[in-house]
Amino acid sequence: MKRFGARTQGINLAVQAEAKPAEVRTGAPMDRLAAFLRRDLEQVEALLAERAASPVATIPDLSGYLIAAGGKRLRPILTLASARAVGGKGGEAVCCLAAAVEFIHSATLLHDDVVDDSDLRRGKAAAKNVWGASASILVGDFLFARAFTLMVETRDLRILDILSRASCVIAEGEVHQLAALNNAELSVGEYMSIVEAKTAALFEAAAKAGALTACNDERVAEAMGEYGRRLGRAFQLVDDLLDYGGLTSVIGKAVGDDFREGKQTLPVLYAREAATAHDRAFWDRVMGPQREQHEADLAHAIHLIRSSGAADRTLEAARLEAAAAQAALAQAARGPFSDELAGLADYCVNRAF
C-alpha cells in the first residue's frame, strides 16, 4: 500500500490576476480552482469577515479565529465552481451562497469540537479551548443564523430550501454519530448513513445550489448535486482513514482523534470484519462501551487497519465514490471547470497518500 500522509499544497490566492482554466496546467486541483476563482473567493472572504462582525466582541474574535485559520475552503470552491461549470459567470448571488455554505461548515466545526472534545482544529488550538465550550456553541449558532441571512439575499427560494434542509440533515447526522459512539455492532450501512448526513449533505447542497444560481435546468442541478454527494462521501472516507496514519497538517486536527473518541469509522469496521478473536478483543476493549485505551493502542490499531487490508478497502471504497461523482458530473457539464471538478474528485482520494 502507498504511504499515507504526503503533504498537500496549500491554496494560494496571492496571484496577480484571476487565471483562466486553460492557463493553469500545474498544481493540485484545489490550487488551480482557487486561481481560476480568485476574484469570487476574495469576495467570499470579504463577506465572511463582514458578516461575522458584531458589537459583542466574543463573536468576531472567536469566529475570526476559526475563519482566519483558512482551512481548505473546499465547500465554497465547490459552490463557485459548480456554478461556473454550468455556464455561470460568478457574481453576488453565488458569492453569498458560497459564504453561507462556509458559515454552515464553520458552525458545525465549532459544535463538533465541543461534542468531540477535540484539542486541535485547522492546526490550531480548538476555539473551545480558548474561549470555552459555551461560547463556541453560541458563536456556532450565530454563524448558522448568518448563513441563513446570506441565503435569503440570493433571493431564490430553491436555494433556501436546499440549504435549510441540508442543515437539518447535518444536525441529524451529528446526533446519529454521537449515538453510535462505542457501538461495536454498527453496520457499514449505518456508518454510511452517518457519512451521508454529516458530510455529504452539505457537499450536495453546495454543488446543487451553486448550479441553480447559473441555470434553471433541474436535471442539471440534480446531477451536480449527485456529484457533490458522492464527492462528500469520498472525502469523508479518506478523512476517516487519515485518522489512522495521516498528518495533522492534512486533516487539520490531531491524528487519532476518532480512535480516542471511540468513533466506529469504515477502517475500523473493515478491520473488525477481518479480525481474529484476539484482535476482536482488542477492538472491543479500545472502542467498546468501556473504551479502555493505553498509550500504545493507537499504533496497534493503525497496524491492524493496514495489515488486515482495511486501509486498502477503505481507499477502494473512496475511489468508487469519486468515480461515481465523475460520472454524475459528466451528465451535467462539459468544459474546463467540469474537468477541474473531475480532478477534484481524484484529489480528495489521492491526498491520502
Structural class: mainly alpha
What is the total tally of β strands?
Answer: 2
- Order the strands across the largest sheet as they lie in space: 1-2
Number of separate helices: 17
Helical content band: 55-70%
Explain what the structure shows:
It contains 17 helices and two strands. With 353 residues, it is mainly alpha-helical. The chain has a single domain (28-350), classed as Farnesyl Diphosphate Synthase (Orthogonal Bundle). Strands 1-2 form a two-stranded antiparallel ribbon. The longest helix is centred in the first third of the chain and has 25 residues, at 92-116.
Identify the notable features of this structure and list them briefly:
353 residues, mainly alpha, Farnesyl Diphosphate Synthase, two-stranded antiparallel sheet, 1% strand, disordered N terminus
Structure in a nutshell:
The chain is mostly helical and 353 residues long. The protein has one domain: Farnesyl Diphosphate Synthase, CATH 1.10.600.10.
Topology of this protein?
Layout: H1 29-36, H2 38-51, H3 58-67, H4 74-85, H5 92-116, E1 120-121, E2 124-125, H6 127-131, H7 133-153, H8 157-180, H9 188-212, H10 218-242, H11 248-251, H12 257-261, H13 266-273, H14 277-287, H15 297-307, H16 310-332, H17 336-350
Antiparallel strand pairs: 1-2
